[in-house]
Amino acid sequence: MRLPKVILSMAMMLLTVGAFAKTEKVWVQGSVGKLSVVVQTPDGLAEGQKCPVVIMMHGFMGNKDGMLEKMTADKLAAQGIATVKFDFNGHGESEGPFSGMTVPNEIEDAKKVYEYVKSLPFAGDIALTGHSQGGVVASMTAGDYGAEMVKCVVLLAPAAVLRDDAIRGSTMGARYNPLDPPAEIPLFGDKKLGGEYIRTAFNLPIYETAKKYTGPACIIHGTGDQVVPFTYGERYHEIWPGSELHILPAADHGFSRDMQKAVDLMVDFLVQTLK
């Protein structure tokens, strides 16, 4: 019996991933509750052997199980690099209400996960990646920790626009008084944004904090991004002298037009820097 090409392709992909990696789900105490974390390590890692670890941070209303994260983790495993994906508080499988989420407590989540990763016996150099709001969190965490603790950083469509959105009184299409935000702001999908998110975003020192990081960095952004204009990615390139900047023509915020291109750029940079 001949299998359909689609099924055969998926089976081959699963076999390939299985040959390169193994995964484990754990729980890590975060800023407001337990965080759902997936650790993916290269297959065949010997006891006592160390390898680089990449901590991946999803965006606003996203989760650790996105296709961008999966593709990147699998490709890194094939290169002998471990990954740690997690859901921020109020997202995915992690604890806490979405309305209680703020960028500062996501930074605290990221630091809790970093400390967990640092304690793993196989953990060598640690890198941070982040998409959208996760990019802001990754950049500010790197700024707080410095190049001695963070080997390199990759930002995909970093959403530094979130501060300007808060100042304008408009987040993801929802309008509010930025000087007196309500306790909760209805968003799409029955989600409600907390007023504390707006108050903390209003004065968030995004670039000022990120600028303290002096290690290798790569920024990937698309000219077709209508959520976060690519000029915000260019600004990161300006504050990080020597960083790589890749502006992808017509790529949208989620890189759906050519996700493989974004993944390849990110993985190539990580492999070159970490290996």
Mean pLDDT: 93
For the biggest sheet, the summary is:
8 strands, mixed
According to CATH, the homologous superfamily is Alpha/Beta hydrolase fold, catalytic domain
- CATH fold-type name: Rossmann fold
**H/E series, N to C?**
HEEEHEHEHEHEEEEHHEHEH
User: Total number of β-strand segments?
Assistant: 12
Class derived from helix and strand content:
alpha/beta
Strand content: 15-25%
CATH architecture classification name: 3-Layer(aba) Sandwich
Please give the alpha-carbon distance between the first and last residues: 43 Å
Structural features, described:
With 275 residues, the protein is α/β, with parallel strands linked by helices. The chain has a single domain, classed as Rossmann fold (3-Layer(aba) Sandwich), CATH 3.40.50.1820. It is built from nine helices and twelve strands. The strands form three sheets. An eight-stranded mixed β-sheet has the order 1-2-4-3-5-6-11-12, sandwiched between helices. The chain has a two-stranded antiparallel sheet with strand order 7-8. The chain has a two-stranded antiparallel sheet with strand order 9-10. Helix 2 links the parallel strand 3 and strand 4.
